Amino acid sequence: KHYTPKHLEEVKAIMARRGAPVIRAIWNECHGVWMAIEGCHRIRAAQELGLTPIIKDISRQKRVRMQVDGENVRVSVRRLAEELQDEAPRAELITFRP
Description:
Blueprint: H1 5-18, E1 22-28, E2 33-36, H2 40-49, E3 54-57, E4 63-68, E5 71-76, H3 77-87
Parallel strand pairs: 1-3
Antiparallel strand pairs: 1-2, 4-5
Helix pairs in contact: 1-2
């Protein structure tokens, strides 16, 4: 939602030095995919650099702290998973090699 090509290039430069990013995500059994709750630039940068992100599974947590419209908030993981699942058919699917 806040993606910009300029920031992608900045993230790629950092990632080229630091390696694969850690991305917090929720497993979605219905679609058989990880749904990232953060890192739209890091995910794209990893793909372009041929890196596979390290998934930090938050599926079993009750609440998680994340940024929403630039503010740090605590949200229900269950509700977040429902929102992401509802958006999944319209979301861009980015794949990585194992």
